[in-house]
Amino acid sequence: QVQLVESGGGLVQAGGSLRLSCAASGRTFSSYVMAWFRRVPGKERDFVASITASGDITVYARSVKGRFTVSRDNAKNTLYLEMNSMKPEDTAVYYCAARGKLEPTYKYWGQGTQVTVSS
User: Fold this and answer.
1) Cα distance between residue 107 and residue 64, in whole Å
2) CA–CA separation, 78 vs 26, rounded Å?
């Protein structure tokens, strides 16, 4: 089991940057596939990016590819999301999530952190 706590959200102007962090508890962080999702009130939660347990493969939603970078530091049990060239449509609550390598769905979720991009 793993517990996830996001931080780093806030208010940023369009074109600006922000870095989110997700601190994980437990000694098995390095065995989990990790991901970022986001949700706008009234809409479904959307996939943003994911990274394999070893960090060698990353996947991005088309809407953020080239602007966002997901990374992890397994020694620090931390997942990151570097967000650049931000747009007002990036405004959402951002969640980190974890799943086992063989599990089809993300089982563990953080509480979310609000990101607001002003125009």
Assistant:
1) 23
2) 11
Helix (H) or strand (E) holding 104: none
| Burial (CB count <10 Å: 0-12, 13-18, 19+), residue 1 | exposed
Per-residue pLDDT of the chain (119 residues; tens, 9 = 90+): 899 999 999 999 999 999 999 999 977 899 999 999 999 989 999 999 999 999 999 999 999 999 999 999 999 999 999 999 999 999 999 999 999 999 999 999 999 999 999 99
- List all residues 6 or more positions away from 70 whose beta carbon is below 8 Å from its beta carbon: 34, 35, 36, 48, 49, 50, 51, 58, 60, 79, 80, 81, 82
Reported residue count of the chain is 119
**CB distance 59 to 90 below 8 Å:** no
Q: What pLDDT is attached to residue 1?
A: 83
Whole-Å CA distances, 77 to 25, 38, 65, 92: 7, 21, 24, 24
Question: What is the rounded CA–CA span in Å between residue 87 and residue 110?
Answer: 23
